[in-house]
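Chapter review: from sequence to fold.
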Amino acid sequence: MAELWPNLETRPTGRLLRLAVEAFLLRSLKGSLRGVYLRGEVPQGPLVLALNHHSFFDGHLVWLLGKLYRRPTSLLVAEENLKGFLVLKLAGALEAGRIREALRRLRRGEWVALFPEGALVYPGPLRPLRRGAGWLAERAGVPLLPVALRVVLRGFEQPEAFLWMGSPLAPEEDLAGALGGLLEGLDALLAQTHPREVPEGFRQVLRGRRSLEERILPLVRLFRP
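The token string follows.
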């Protein structure tokens, strides 16, 4: 079983399965969220992405980032969380214990993403971080990229996702301070922005499901005196 997925990935059946899994991920994002918004840019080359983990959609959003920047991306996932969904390996999921494989992918110029809080937690301030992100970046000789994200229900029927890309860090720099400050800034910006407006500096990168009043607006306009 351990050799099934690497072998399957290079075969036509594996490629078709990967396309199907990715289609489901995209459909889930577009059908469940009103939109995905991004602020900041990503440097060229391999990166270790470190993100807070406060919503069901966080893994979907990591996959979307890789697609937007056309960069092969692996998300480190606890093995027990992957056992029931092995096919997600074809969309980039990698067991957190496979450190050598993660390093190989980074050295090939790919991205590896992880949630250094170590668990899905209730939205709020950043929790204490585990040391794996910095260790992985140091061993691979690549930068760290903090990414703050929030999936929030504001002034529309569906929630919206906001991702704020920070500045790249050297492995020895303060990831907790950078990611925590970025998340605090994102929360403050959302709090001071009208709930039906896009926060300053963000751009929409994926359009999702419209609210009921938005969907019926053309009909309302048709019959408006």
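Two observations follow directly from the output. Residues 104 and 140 are 8 Å apart (CA to CA). Residues 4-223 form one domain.
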